[in-house]
Specification:
alpha/beta, TIM Barrel, two-stranded antiparallel sheet, 11 helices
């Protein structure tokens, strides 16, 4: 990445921005759009709280419900992600592509080729240069659309866009970015889908701004983490995971995106005693037993809502939060827990267990 954005290779995410002057300058420049987000969210969010009670489900397919994030840089220490994915019985994959690594395009293409019989969504991680330079973005996105056309079915445009460390300082910046990507996508006659806006956590005022902006997404993708609350049944603003899904679904249904499927593209819990690989502080970390129970409960609650097309677990190989320890290749107990959940759910045509949440 380019300074002041620095990548944390342990936790697989950028470090928080430390240059306060840089951050302050960009926020000031985007202040009108930031204020619009606050105003719109404050005005409409109470209405969506009520509206969530009145929408019926779309009834997704259990065979397409389970997804998994995999990464090129996890192919080490004897780890073969292809074999692991086949063992789990996963058909839908999410792969990140950092736009600041265009020189590695051929390596990423070769990596996706190994999974060409799967359904692949590529996540476009922007650099600040690509956000600010439309010509650079158009050039690089056009090149990767050609390169990935044989293997990639969908692109998630942006990632956790309500966190400045991922590049965007306002929803307006993101929407301009998405429009540029869509313009190139259409001009090239691409058949793949474009997903967005990818808001992280329970901050749905950002979702309200982007989903009601008039911009159309082929799929609505969100990172609905609940790890800071412990069990997915614990409440925030009066809502547990199921309630949050109901609220998000209502926002989608009352927006121009009402025909777009809803995807949760990231969820996990940080693992106890795994620093510096854990993506959060030790306070939020859980032991293996709680990780396994919370993961199964998360999938069960999301499926029972019948409003989420697919949940992608983040991610297969990651010492601090995944199913396999990247430093040793050892499978955590969660790997077998998910394997059992998937095979049982498919065999019973969508009957998932009903865990009691926290142990």
């Amino acid at each position: 990445m380019q300074k002041p954005f620095v990548w944390d290779s342990y936790a697989d995410q950028p470090f928080p921005l430390e240059d306060r002057a840089y951050k302050r300058a960009h926020r000031w420049r985007n202040l009108p759009n930031i204020l619009w987000t606050i105003f719109l969210g404050g005005l409409l969010l109470p209405l969506f709280y009520i509206a969530r009670l009145f929408f019926s489900a779309k009834k997704p397919s259990i065979h397409d419900f389970f997804g998994m994030g995999i990464n090129l840089d996890k192919e080490k220490n004897g780890i073969d992600q292809r074999l692991l994915i086949d063992e789990l019985g996963i058909e839908h994959l999410l792969i990140r592509f950092p736009l600041w690594e265009m020189e590695k395009l051929s390596q990423y293409v070769a990596f996706t080729e190994r999974f060409r019989d799967k359904h692949i969504t590529l996540v476009l991680l922007p650099s600040r240069a690509h956000i600010e330079d439309e010509a650079l973005l158009a050039r690089d996105v056009g090149e990767l659309f050609i390169a990935f056309a044989p293997t990639v079915e969908a692109y998630q445009v942006g990632n956790a866009i309500n966190r400045t460390k991922w590049g965007f300082f306002s929803m307006g910046e993101y929407l301009r970015f998405f429009k540029t990507v869509r313009k190139i996508h259409r001009s090239m006659g691409q058949k793949s889908a474009l997903w967005g806006p990818n808001i992280i956590d329970f901050e749905f005022y950002y979702a309200i701004h982007t989903l009601l902006s008039g911009v159309r997404f082929d799929g609505v993708s969100m990172q609905l983490y609940v790890d800071r609350r412990g069990s997915p049944r614990n409440r925030q603003w009066g809502l547990n995971l199921r309630g949050k899904i109901d609220l998000l679904y209502a926002i989608v249904q009352l927006s121009p995106q009402r025909s777009a499927p809803l995807y949760i593209t990231e969820a996990n819990w940080p693992r106890q005693n795994s620093a510096p690989y854990a993506p959060t502080s030790e306070t939020e970390c859980v032991d293996a037993a709680h990780y396994d129970a919370y993961m199964v409960d998360y999938f069960a609650l999301a499926w029972q809502s019948q409003k989420v097309e697919r949940v992608y677990w983040h991610q297969l190989v990651a010492k601090g939060y995944g199913l396999v320890d990247e430093t040793t290749g050892e499978k955590y107990s969660a790997f077998d827990a998910l394997k059992t959940l998937i095979s049982t759910a498919k065999a019973q045509n969508g009957i998932l267990p009903h865990p009691k949440g926290a142990l």
